[in-house]
Amino acid sequence: MRHGRINGFMKKVQQEDYIIQNLGECAIQSPVIVNDFTPDSKRLLLKQYLDYSNTGKNKDEKVKREIPLSVEVAGPREKIFFDPSKTKAAIVTCGGLCPGINDVIRAIVMQLYHRYGVRNIIGIKYGFQGLIPSYGHEIVELTPESVENIHREGGSILSSSRGQQNIGEMVDALSRMNVNIFFCIGGDGTMRAAERITEEITRRKLSISLIGIPKTIDNDLNFVQKTFGFDTAIAESENAISCAHVEAKGAPMGIGLVKIMGRLSGQIAVGAALAQNDVNFVLIPEVPFDLEGENGLFKALEKRLIRRKHCVILVAEGAGQELMRTNNTPQETDASGNIRLLDIGYFLKVRIEDYFKKAGIQINLKYIDPSYMIRSVRASASDSIYCSALGQYAVHAGMAGKTGMLVGLLKDEYVHLPIRVVTSGKQIDPEGNLWMRVLESTGQPPSLLNKPLDPPVEEHVVI
Fold first, then answer.
1. By three-state DSSP, how is residue 458 classified?
2. Within this chain, do residues 198 and 260 fall inside the same structural domain, yes or no?
3. Could you say which residues are annotated as the site Important for substrate specificity (predicted)?
4. Does 458 have pLDDT greater than 50?
């Protein structure tokens, strides 16, 4: 629901929030040969707008002030912290699968080995479980030969897992294995764990750099322009939509219903709908809708079928959750602590079929859920290029002794961001141009609600 939704990224941030932690002085000349090194002083300027209420002469007056912010630009440093000949690096992949994971692994290994001369690189199997001795997972050696062709495969050669592990035990393992740089590829939950690991490493005064590479196919991380796998997800979603359109047109009163990823944000659904202009209704978490009533989805769907004889509906997995939950519905969580979503796709299938059966209208509905097929494919060309850059910039940061940070794309520039400021929450603005383009492309009504929402509370920060 949009009531009181905070637009933008954070409510209050200061320049201190963007300072990148360093392990110590960089005194070793970098072996990397480049035309220009990137100094720490090179920063990307941002703008932050803070709206404060109750600070004017009356309670309804708002005072706006602008505060400049900047973030550190990524790139090779002239002086590095770790001696490549004595450096040991470890890579772990956590959470759900996503196109491009192998591309990132390959880029990290190739960059460490060929550009910096690091020869001791290991992979931690099955996510953070691989650092816990009781699981008994193997540690694998990573070399240019072993990763040479992995970008041609989907999934992760290191495999993955979900669930919280003991932070102390994980740091014990890193210390025991003499790991100097720990690369964590994962999503929101992984980054929360990575932040806690960094805090424990700092508390113990260990010289271990932790570098995050953000992974979420939903593309819903604040401050990050785009996450890897997103372009591939849109391209693969196009295939499912195309099949649904063919099925819908292949029978009288045909309906193609497609459910795709998007727990809290409809980024993939919106992108796929705009890329494949065969969708007639797009349902996303940011835009609530009713089923029944004169302005609800069922009536709009009925009008569409009567007029055109077929229809394609695209729904994000997090949409319409409030329609299925009651006070008695238990709210379960998965191993990563995420709320388990109810199946909006199957729910809509059953409810749509019931509605038209009661109306005496025969329909032909085909339900398609390609989610796991999309997650497991190899990365597209654009994602592969992006993943290579993320891996390379992550290595530059790690070798320079930076820690507690992740590499991300922001305003078309690769930057260093403290892990603590990057959380999921980026959403489609129902009042913005992107959603307007979806409405124009699909022809769906501006609202599928019987009662208008209250206007959102305009208390936000925009960066």
1. coil
2. no
3. 189
4. no
Residue-level pLDDT at 53: 47
Report the alpha-carbon distance of residue 327 to residue 320 in Å, rounded. Answer: 16
Q: How much of the chain, in percent, has pLDDT values that exceed 70?
A: 88
* The pair of three-digit structure tokens given for residue 408, joined into one six-digit string: 């991300």
b/e burial code for range 132-171 (CB count within 10 A of at least 16 → b): beeeebeebebeeebbeebbeebbbbbbbbbeebebeebb
* pLDDT for residue 64 is more than 70: no
Looking at the structure, do residues 401 and 312 belong to the same domain, yes or no? Answer: no
Where does 379-418 show beta strands of DSSP type E? 402-403, 405-410, 413-418
Catalytic residue, from 218, 220, 278, 290: name it. Answer: 218
Residues annotated in a binding site: 96, 162-163, 187-190, 216-218, 261-263, 317, 372-375
Give 27's DSSP letter.
Answer: -
Asked whether the beta carbons of 343 and 263 are under 8 A apart, the reply is no
Eight-state DSSP code of residue 114 = I
Residue 54 pLDDT exceeds 80? no
Locate 393 and state its tokens: 């910039």
Chain centroid, CA 257 distance in Å: 24
- CA 439 – CA 275 distance, rounded (Å): 14
Active site residue 218: yes
Tokens of 392: 């390379």
Indicate the annotated binding residues for ATP: 96, 162-163, 187-190
Please give the Cα distance from 258 to 375 (Å, whole number): 15
**Per-residue pLDDT tens for 97-146?**
999 999 999 999 999 999 999 999 999 999 999 999 999 999 999 999 99
Confidence (pLDDT) at 409: 94
Reported confidence tier of residue 456, pLDDT bands at 50, 70, 90: low
Close Cβ partners of 292 (under 8 Å, ≥ 6 residues apart)? 298, 450
- Average of per-residue pLDDT across 224-233: 93
Rg, Å, the chain Cα set: 24
| Distance in angstroms (rounded) separating the CA atoms of residues 400 and 318 | 40
Under DSSP, is residue 195 helix (H, G, I), strand (E, B) or coil? helix
Binding residues for Mg(2+): 188
Split at pLDDT 50, 70, 90, the class of 418 is very high
State the average pLDDT over residues 358-372: 96
Give CA separation, 382 vs 227, 229, 231, 257, in Å. 12, 9, 7, 28
Same domain flag for 271 and 176: no
Q: Specify the residue for token string 């219903």.
A: 257
State the residue range of the domain holding 331: 230-376+429-442
Kindly state whether residues 18 and 34 are assigned to the same domain.
Answer: yes
The reported pLDDT for the residue numbered 426 is 86
